Every structure is written in structure tokens, then in C-alpha cells.
Amino acid sequence: MAAGNMQGHKLGWIGIGRMGYAMAERLAKAGCDISVWNRTRAKAEPLAKSGAKVVDVLPDLAGCDVVFTMVAAGKDVKEVLFGANGVTSKGKAPKIVVDSTSISLEESAEIREKLGKLGVKFLAAPVSGNAKVIKAGKLTVVASGPKDAFDVVAPYMAAIGQGVSYVGDGELSRIAKICHNVMLGVVIQNLCEITVLAETAGMKRHAFLDFLNKSVMGSTFTRYKTPGLVNLDFHVTFTPELLRKDIDLGLDAGRRFGVPMPLTSIARDMVQTLIGNGYGDQDFSALLLLQAKASGIELKSENVEIGDGLGS
């Protein structure tokens, strides 16, 4: 989204890891008035070339209209907002805080309550994608919290990626992200099963996946995973341990709300088997190797140049 579609709010950004850097960079390049802070300043400094201002201390962001946080964990969100040197430590606070860190519902609710006492509106805004997806402009965001705060922030979220969905009040977006990652586990397991079935029947993986990706069943996810499945490239985008954690959160939610999740339970067992077989340091799509082993075949890279669907 062009900067002209956005109102001129003063933005702050906390957390310049791989995801945070790519997200803040898109806002800076869209012409937003954005100030960034990172624990290691050197990691944030290159953003100055894109038009961002780099600040030395967190309270410098207290005067912003909107502050985004994208840090490692819930304890880090609390530290940067409420710690001794945090954003609110000097008695001032931004109008809206938007958090895209992967944190629990309980931590999110606690942060919402603390910010509320300071008169700050809070949006929980988990994202779907990785740094490569962000650079391609295809990150998606799901948000929950006050609708009026969402209306202010939505154009900036749209500038970061290809879409933002509002799912309601409170921590509902955290549930949405858990549901999303549960589907990730179920879909990758099924994709590996049918790819091995096709190969065992005599097809080349790249030919089968080309057909699948052109069909109604193809998706950004299946296209993005195709080069790795074809060429056995399992460099990590998401570890099996992290996927297992999210599936466990989904199964816990299923128990809490009385929803049976049989496919999710099986996918969880397959991810656990993947870890137990020593694939914990590879991408979760290494489930393909596990499936091949169980099917009595040995896979080889097809060494085919194939697009990941993220290009324009």
C-alpha cells in the first residue's frame, strides 16, 4: 500500500531480528515516519538508509502514536514496554501498541491489562510468513483488540504484507494463529504422503507438484515448499520442535473448548516421530524423508530449478 493511503502517524518499532527488520524496512520504504530500537543498535542502523530513525533508548518511542513490538518472547515484550528502561518508564506512553511476537494468550491478556491501566490500546497481531515472504510482500497479519485501534493501524499492516484480518476483541488473534499453525502440521504431513505415493507409483516429484500447484489444491504454502521437497533442501524455516509446540497449543485449545481434533493428533505424533528420528535441526518439511523411509524408498534430489511462487 502506498504511503498516500496512510495517515501521518508517528510510528515506533521495537525488535530488529530477521522478521522485525524486514517488516520495519517495508514501512520505512513506504515513507512512514518510523523510529526503530533494537537491543543491539548495529542491527538497526542499516534501516536509516531506508528512511528510519534509529533511537538509543526505549522511552524515546513513548511519544509515538503507534509502537510495534516484534521480539523473542512474552518476557521480552514486558521488558521493553514496562521494564526499568522500557518505553513507559518515564511516565509517558504511546497511544497504541501492536505486538506481533509469538506469545501465549495469558501473557497477551496480562500485557493488555497493564497497557489499559496506562490508557494505551493494545492489538495482538501475529503474522504468517518469514523474512523471505515479507520481502516478497506476501506476509499476512491477523489482529484482535479494540476496533478503533485496528482501523488506525490497518493501513500500516497492509503496507507490510498482502493483507490483514480483524477477528474480534481480546486475544482471539492468538487463537487464530494457533489454528493456522495446526493446519501447517496437518497439510505438510498430507503433502508428504501424497508426494511419496506419486513417486512410488513412478512419477517425478517436480512433475506431480507442478500439477498440484496448478490445481485448485495448490496454495502459496504448497508452492513455497515445492523446491525443498523436489531438491531435498530442508534448511530451517520452522523447526519441528516449534511446530510441535504450536500443535500442542492447538490440542490444548481443543480440549478446553470441547473440539475433537483427530487429524491434528496424528500430525502431532508424526512431528514427534520426526524429532525422535533425529531431524530436529532440519525444517519440518523433512517429514518427506520420514514418509519415504516408512514407504521403503530412498529419495534423491531431482536437481530441478523450480520457483517458490513468491516472485512477482
What number is the mean pLDDT?
95
CATH topology assignment of the largest domain: Rossmann fold
How many beta-strand runs? 9
For the biggest sheet, the summary is:
6 strands, parallel
- What Rg is obtained from the alpha carbons, in whole angstroms? 21 Å
Structure description:
With 312 residues, this protein is α/β, with parallel strands linked by helices. It has two domains: 168 residues, NAD(P)-binding Rossmann-like Domain (Rossmann fold, 3-Layer(aba) Sandwich); 120 residues, N-(1-d-carboxylethyl)-l-norvaline Dehydrogenase, domain 2. Helix content is 49%, strand content 11%. The protein is built from twelve helices and nine strands. The strands form two sheets. A six-stranded parallel sheet has the order 3-2-1-4-5-6, with helices on both faces. Strand 8, helix 6 and strand 9 form a beta-alpha-beta unit. Helix 7 packs across helix 12. It is globular, with a radius of gyration of 21 Å.
